Amino acid sequence: MERQPIIAANWKMNKTVKEAEEFMKKVAGRVPATERVQAILGSPALFLHSLVEEAEKNQIALAAQNCYHEDEGAFTGENSPKALHDLGVDYVIIGHSERREYFKETDEEINLKAKAIFRNQMLPIICCGESLEQYEAGETKEWVAEQVRKALEGLSEEEITQTVIAYEPIWAIGTGKTSSAEEANATIKEIRATIAQVASSEVADKVRILYGGSVKPANIKEFMAQSDIDGALVGGASLEADSYIALLEGAF
Ligand code: PGA
């Protein structure tokens, strides 16, 4: 099964509008064709509007880093999935470990967000991953499978097929430590097996599953060489234009 690779930048809470626009100017005309790799840029919601036109010209899909699970209403400070779609946003990253840890996002909420994202014609990038303690206790596979199962609950097979999953061991995020490519691949295979259980093996074969955690141009090829890793969700190494382009080029 040929799955289109994805490199998704996760800028987190970095840059100003001006810096984001400068980044776009630097990558303009250098993004590989979508037949080779789907470039995704997860920008703070504040800059999405100013990036949308250039992103489209360069075949970069824009991602928000979060949204609320209701379309509109009295939810002070939240970002509406309906408004994000209207802005031209294609993907929303949900369930990132930083959101689970610092903002107490639960599996139930992540599931509601996934539904809201589909309801508003966007696609979710659902993050999962274990802590260092869980990793050391050998609990990774069960933990991650449970996160995935709960996030996908109630979604149709068609929706699950279009979902992107990002497996990010928490101990590898921003630490410079990576899971070995083989170990990440083994966990990602388990995630695929979980998807086969909740949907079907045909669906599981089609779902793009990314690895995340200290991915950089120097190691992207190792991950891409694995049978079940379809790309990467990248924080630190996605902030500089040259590095982002190198990651995209390393994905095929
Ligand atoms: P990192 O972040 O590439 O800086 O480790 C990855 C992520 O948190 O998505």
TrEMBL record:
Any one GO MF annotation of this record: triose-phosphate isomerase activity
Active site per database record: 96 (electrophile), 168 (proton acceptor)
Enzyme Commission number: 5.3.1.1
Main location per the UniProt record: cytoplasm
Pathway: Carbohydrate biosynthesis; gluconeogenesis; Carbohydrate degradation; glycolysis; D-glyceraldehyde 3-phosphate from glycerone phosphate: step 1/1
Subunit structure: Homodimer.
HAMAP family: TIM_B
Protein name: Triosephosphate isomerase
